[in-house]
């Protein structure tokens, strides 16, 4: 009973890992900025880097929203968006992972994520992209945790130099939209250019395929 009450308290709004969705429409910012306006030409070297930490799909109907099943295939919500971008753009794809894996338990994951946030802990990454300098366009994907990017994303921006590169963000959320993360990225990477991204509720991720393609076409990033 206590476990159920604890989960309900979290759902009331204390954490954005699973907060009930209040904004189901995808958010692509204030109008699309075509890539031709930012980086001349179309022969881009594209990287899709994403952080996805799907909770076990046997926890309950709400926490399993971090996973989606499409055509019988199981994905993390951010992973699914990254996969569509990968197929549509022909870019390379890499998952951002921490050296110390996150707990699989929802309660433990929520607690660790909050501790990292409160103490500004940037966890060490296991991901290593040796040819990062070769990419000029980088899609960056993440979920919203505690109303911000997971702290592993700050580690990612610490580790790599984005100066002169074009960043295209995408995210999934539980109702908070971008939650200020676009401003955070712009502050972290002032020497990069950012094109309008794509943010969608986890509740709608499984049916987002066409919307993602429309967004990519709008910014001139279809292969």
Automatic annotation (TrEMBL):
Residues 1-20 form the signal peptide. Transmembrane segments: none annotated. GO terms for molecular function: FMN binding. The keyword Signal applies. Residues 76-217 form the Flavodoxin-like domain. It holds the Pfam family Flavodoxin_4. Keywords: Signal. It comes from the Bacteria. InterPro entries: Flavodoxin/NO_synth (IPR008254), Flavoprotein-like_sf (IPR029039). PANTHER family: EXPORTED PROTEIN-RELATED, FLAVODOXIN-LIKE DOMAIN-CONTAINING PROTEIN. NCBIfam families: PRK06934.1 (NF005389). This is Flavodoxin-like domain-containing protein.
């Amino acid at each position: 009973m206590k476990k159920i009450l604890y989960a309900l308290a979290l759902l009331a709004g204390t954490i954005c890992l699973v907060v009930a969705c209040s904004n189901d429409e995808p958010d692509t910012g204030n109008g699309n900025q075509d890539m031709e306006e930012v980086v001349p030409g179309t022969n881009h070297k594209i990287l899709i880097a994403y952080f996805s930490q799907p909770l076990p799909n046997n926890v309950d109907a709400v926490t399993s929203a971090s996973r989606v099943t499409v055509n019988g295939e199981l994905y993390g919500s951010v992973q699914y968006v990254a996969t569509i971008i990968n197929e549509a753009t022909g870019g390379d794809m890499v998952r951002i992972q921490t050296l110390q894996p996150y707990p699989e338990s929802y309660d433990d994951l929520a607690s660790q994520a909050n501790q990292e946030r409160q103490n500004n802990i940037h966890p060490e990454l296991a991901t290593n992209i040796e040819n990062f300098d070769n990419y000029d366009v980088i899609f960056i994907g993440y979920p919203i945790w505690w109303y911000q990017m997971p702290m592993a994303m700050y580690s990612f921006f610490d580790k790599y130099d984005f100066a002169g590169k074009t960043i295209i963000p995408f995210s999934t959320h539980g109702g908070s939209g971008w939650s200020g993360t676009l401003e955070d990225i712009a502050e972290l990477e002032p020497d990069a250019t950012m094109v309008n991204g794509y943010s969608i509720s986890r509740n709608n991720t499984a049916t987002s395929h066409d919307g993602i393609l429309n967004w990519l076409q709008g910014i001139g990033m279809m292969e």
